[in-house]
Structure formats: C-alpha cells, structure tokens
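User: Sequence in, structure out. Go.
Assistant: Echoing your sequence, followed by the structure tokens.
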Amino acid sequence: MTNHNVKETKVVKDVDEWITVRQLHKKGMSIRGIARELKMSKNTVKKLLRSPTRPTYQRKIYPSKVEAYKEQIKIWYLDPSYNFIGTRIYEELLKIGYDGSIGPVYRYLSTLQQQKRKISTKATVRFETPPGDQAQFDWAHYKLLVNGTYVTVYCFAMVLSYSRYKAMVCSLRMDADAVHKAIEDLYFKLDGVTIELMVDNPKALIIEHLEGKEPKYTRESLILAAHLGVELNACQPYRARTKGKVERPFNYLEEHFIKGNTFESMTDLNQRLDKFIENWNNKLHTTTKRIPKEAYQEEKSSLLPLPRNRYYNEKLEFRKVSLDSLVMIKGKKYSVPVSFVEQTVSYKVSYGYLIEIFNSAKSVIATYDLTVDDSLVNKLEEHYDVIKTKVSKSIPEIKRLMISTFSNGEQYLVAAAKKLEQPTYHARRILSLLELYPLEHMEKVLDYCITQELYRIEEIKSVLKDKYLEIILESKQLTTSESTLIRSLDYYDDGGTAYEIFP
C-alpha cells in the first residue's frame, strides 16, 4: 500500500530551470511569457528571478493511487498490439485492483500522448535499398555571406540510398527551374541515374498529394523524369522521414561547412562545397559503417546511364554574337569564344546567379556568376586566345620575323626607324594582325602605309578601317570569301572598347 504522506526532496528541476528562467528574462521575455513557455506559475518564475544562487526547496509529493499501475498503463496505451483508449484502460485497471477514480488515469495518459506521437512518428521501418534502386532528393536553406552581402542560399542534395554517396549544389532560388536543374545536375554529379527518386512534396514537382491518394506531378517534372529515365516517388504527406537519408546530412553540413565561412561568390561556394562533399564521401558512415565512396564503386555499375543530352526547358533565350564576340544579356555584355562571332547562341540564368551560354548543340560555351560578373562588359581573356598571335618580344627576333614574313618588311623597318622611337613595338603589333588578315592583303596595306609615311600601329589600324577594300581592290576584284573580314574594322579602333590583342 502506498503511503500518501511520504515527502520527497527535489532540486528545482535542477539548475536548468533556474538558468532558463534567467536567460529568457534577460532576452526581454515577460514573467507571464516565461511562465507560459515553461509551464510553471508566475510566482515560481518571480522566485527564481529573485534568487541570486541556485535555489533548492522542499515540496510535498503525494503519489496518486495510479502510481503503482503506470507500467501496465504504458503497455496498454503505447503497445500497438493493445492501443487501448482511456476508458478501456480504466476498466482493465479496476479488474486488477485499482480503486481510484478515472481522473488520475486520464491525467497520466495525457503525459504519455507526446511519447505516443513520437513513437508513431519514429515507427518508420528501416530498410536498405539494393544498389541503383533509389536516390533521395531534398533541400535546406541557410543565410550566408556571399561577396560581402548576406543572402538566402538554398542547398539541394541528393543521396544514393544504398551507398550513401552524396552530391550537393547551391542556388539563390528554389523555383521550379532551380529544382529541375538541381535534380539533373546532381544526377550528373553522381554519374548515373537510379530507378526511383524519392522526393518530398514541393510545388515545383507536385500539384496535389492527398494522404492515401496517388500524387499528381507537374507536367514539367514528368518530362524531366522521362528525360532522365527515373520514376518520381513522393513521400506520404507529413511523412518526410521516409527520406531521412538525405535530410540528416543537412545538420552535418551546417555544423561542419556553413557555420563560420564566407564566400567570394556563388561559384566559390559551389566549388568549395564540391571539395567538402568529396572529403565527406570518404568518411565512415555512422549507420552503414562503410565509406560511401567505396560503397559507391560497388553501386555505380547498377546505375542507369545518363541521358546523352542535357535537359533544357523552353525558357532559353537567343542572342546573336557581335563582331567583338560579345552577347547582350539583361543590359550587360558577356564574351564568348571568338569562333562564335555572328552566330546565334542561347542562354539562361540558372539558380538565380549562373549565366549559361549555349551553342546550337546545347553545349555550354561560357558561364558567368552574377554575384561577381556584373560589370557593363564582362570578358574572359581565354575567349580571345585564338586571335592572339604568339609573337616574340625579343627585338632581334621581331626584326627577323618581320623581314622573313613580309616582302616589304625590311623596307618598313628601315623607314619606321627614321620616324619612330620604338619601331619593333609597332612591327610586333603588325605581325599580330596576320591572325585577322591574309598575308597578301597586309603586304598591300603595308605598301600603302610606307608610301604615305604611316608607320604607327594606330595609323595602320586606321587605314585598315577606312581604306582596306580600296587598297586591295586596286589590283583585283575581290571574291565573296576574300571580302569577308574576320572582324569588324571597328574592333581595331583604339578609341573604343575593343579588345586589345596585346596589352
């Protein structure tokens, strides 16, 4: 028989309660708010705030009649094989000697409700999928310092369920385009496609998914899935734990990569993330007790092949490449390789920051990061490498090359030496023009310039701009191919924004 008069001494819910109350009050929370938050009386809150030290007190505890039956009640209430309701539990208690009222039973059951919900939520059967069967896809968002500005960054992740091999990519957006591109990009990072892709229920992929009903996918997501050769499988609503293999890594990512780091650009972020993931994939997985990279080597042969072509929706925009190898995108100019001059290219802005420029075969020919490449004119020097003649800077070598290349090269050097302080500088620039004009045409232009006592590179460029056709037409009629210039003559106007072949 239970003694109702037993007194128990208890420390004030340990020191934690005292510390928590003081911390909340320091942050500006009212006494009433603290009491409501911690489910204690206002008087208790006041007492704890007044106490300069860790207080203790004695309180009389009168165990109820239900105390002796708590373990049995737990079984009847929490065990799925019983799952009794309150009235049924009360009836069963009476049969085994309980002589109290139903009130204490219900009060105890209320304390078990949270535990029951946790059990129900966690009661997901763990199963290991065969290699190549499934990948899981999800995302999380973080506040990061990128190029000196705090921005919200969305991190998309995909995990192979068998090997736990991971791939991630970060975006400034999480709209449908970003989600679709992330799914494809991550499969390409994984170098293969699974039979099934487990996803949550984002609007980018799911129109409607009622519990117990077949999910309705968006048209675009089904097209993407068909292109990749994967079948989408949406989690049951409010049961995102079914893709826990991809959700748990976000906590690790935040603690070991996100916190304390700043990034020069989104490109910098994604490049450093790739290195982090590479190292992560080489660490022992706490659940499988295997290294994901090693398990991936086993799984890789079971993955479906990647599609031959990348998936792009209808939102590509088209631009014609100018004579100076630039395309206009959203009011700014971006260079592409000079081989695409006067061709039509397409582009799209992905992830809210990444400009991708494509050729007619939908291959990427140039990329830019809007978080850093935001000048009115953005040029990459390598796009112009093909028109940079590798002319020696050695003065003797320039003289020899000038004489051996041009029939009138020696004549130019002799005449220029009488007028210019650095004739070889200008000779070197003349030699570089052979990447743009036929030798026989340049010799005619050079003859004209010598007769006119025009020796400076700027003067020769001006002649090319204004009198090129006139000079070479004096001797013969140009064919169509001969009259097609490799570059606009404006390109060589030193007064403009033209790219300089040599600095």
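User: And one key feature?
Assistant: The chain has four domains: 8-122, 134-302, 317-385, 388-492.
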